[in-house]
Write a structure and sequence with these properties.
3 domains, alpha/beta, Ribosomal Protein S5, domain 2, 9-stranded mixed beta sheet, Rossmann fold
Length: 450
């Protein structure tokens, strides 16, 4: 006798329960459980039949040595920073999921990409699930979009797949996947709808060779709303986030390129404009000759950038001195402060220490340790670093300066920005490294005297 199994799924994180719960124990969301379509288990599929597997035989095996090699064809999105994040451009048949806070510019960026692809001669299908066609036209006029993009408000997954099969567009944009519905699968935006809609559109993209971009809502925690399996189905997952006056496009998964790539944009009246030189943009307002300011060569994801590490020391009016850290790992900063006190005899007990990574970025890079050490030392003793010095290196508990990942790329980025003097760990070709924080302090201010 077949047995019907009912289960309830959290529409925020995909957690499964045998009964509805008021609060999800996994993501802590309230009233988020939905009943999933019952499945039938039991019968012959449970065991009996020929061979113990219901008479089902396995398929044909293919040796790896007989599988051919094929490079997936790419096309440019028309925006250099988008191509960088995607690993070289849009992949034919590839499915990209883009998430971000409401109003951050996802639809704006994708409309700019659609315009570039259409002007290059490709057919673009834009599925407008959240806006009217008139609203899209108003945005297109504001952005100066002149290409003829094919629009539809039909959000049935079966109909979108049929349009892709009939017109074979080069690019299909679905804004958003939470509005896509599948026949007989529950309410729009539910776990089952989002999962099955993503699967159907992914299958259509692979069959037609259409590069497909799905816009996804995000939860209050910043993750894509819906079941986690959705991120496993797609080929690429990218997030658009706000950092100060800039927008960052970051890839967290990429089957056709390197994950962790970063693109920098600036929001203007004509849309999102790519920032070709992020280092110059983040250092544009750096004060020169001010104690506590250090230029650090860091790597965010896979991209080397120059950022300003700032430190401020002031006498504390409180019994316990405060340690305030913005943009860096507070625990690593505490370690660096302990090294300064122990190895350099720098008295910090009666001082409030403030450390900030200017520009609004949050970079958990161990290579910023040496910059933090020099910034704090500079702030305490009241001596500014030379204007042409850039720093990177990890600091150990013994006060030693250790090598970091991507050291050569960091040094090349500093050289392109015009920083002639590098305070770096030993072993970097063409540069005399420093072995300890104490040596780094001596080298910096000997250079200042010269």
């Amino acid at each position: 006798m077949a047995r019907v199994t009912t289960k309830y799924v959290c529409n925020s994180c995909g957690y499964t329960s045998a009964k509805p719960l008021g609060r999800c124990p996994n993501c802590q969301a309230w009233n988020s459980f939905e009943e999933e379509v019952p499945t039938v288990t039991g019968g012959k599929a449970r065991g009996g039949g020929a061979g113990g597997y219901g008479g089902i035989s396995g398929g044909r095996l293919t040796p790896l040595s007989t599988v051919g090699r094929r490079e997936e064809p790419r096309m440019s999105s028309g925006i250099s920073e988008v191509d960088r994040v995607l690993g070289g451009g849009l992949v034919a048949g590839g499915v990209t999921l883009i998430g971000g806070e409401p109003g951050i510019g996802k639809s704006t960026l994708l409309l700019q990409v659609a315009d570039s692809v259409a002007r290059a001669g490709g057919t673009v299908l834009y599925v407008a699930g959240e806006e009217s066609l008139e609203q899209i036209r108003l945005r297109a006029d504001r952005l100066g979009v002149t290409a003829d993009i094919q629009l539809t408000r039909d959000t049935r997954a079966e109909h979108i797949a049929a349009l892709m099969n009939e017109h074979r567009p080069v690019l299909c944009i679905v804004d958003s996947i939470q509005t896509v519905t599948v026949e007989g699968e529950g309410a729009p935006g539910g776990v089952t709808q989002v999962r099955d809609g993503t699967s159907m559109l992914t299958r259509a993209a692979k069959e037609t060779g259409t590069a497909t971009v799905l816009v996804g809502h995000v939860t209050k925690d910043g993750t894509v709303a819906g079941p986690k399996v959705m991120e496993h189905i797609v080929d690429t997952t990218v997030f658009l986030e706000t950092v100060g006056a800039f927008r960052l496009l970051r890839s967290v998964k990429n089957r056709f390129g390197q994950a962790g790539e970063l693109g920098v944009f600036e929001m203007r009246g004509e849309g999102l404009i790519a920032v070709e030189n992020p280092s110059a943009a983040f250092l544009a307002e750096r004060p020169v000759g001010v104690p506590g300011s250090v230029v650090a060569a860091t790597v965010d994801g896979q991209r080397p950038m120059l950022l300003e590490v700032q430190a401020l020391a002031s006498k504390t009016p409180y019994p316990n001195a405060r340690r305030v850290v913005v943009g860096l790992d507070p625990r690593r900063v505490d370690v660096v402060l302990a090294v300064l006190e122990r190895r350099l005899d720098l008295t910090l007990g009666g001082l409030d220490i403030y450390v900030n990574l200017a520009g609004g970025l949050k970079v958990p890079d161990p290579g910023l340790d040496l910059a933090v050490a020099l910034a704090v030392y500079s702030a305490v003793v009241g001596r500014a670093l030379p204007a042409n010095v850039a720093v990177f290196g990890e600091v150990g508990l013994a006060g030693e300066v250790r090598s970091t990942v991507a050291s050569q790329r960091r040094a090349e980025e500093a050289g392109r920005a015009g920083y002639k003097r590098l305070i770096v760990p030993p072993g970097l070709a063409g540069h005399a490294g420093v072995k300890s924080v104490e040596e780094a302090v001596g080298v910096v201010w000997q250079t200042a005297k010269a």
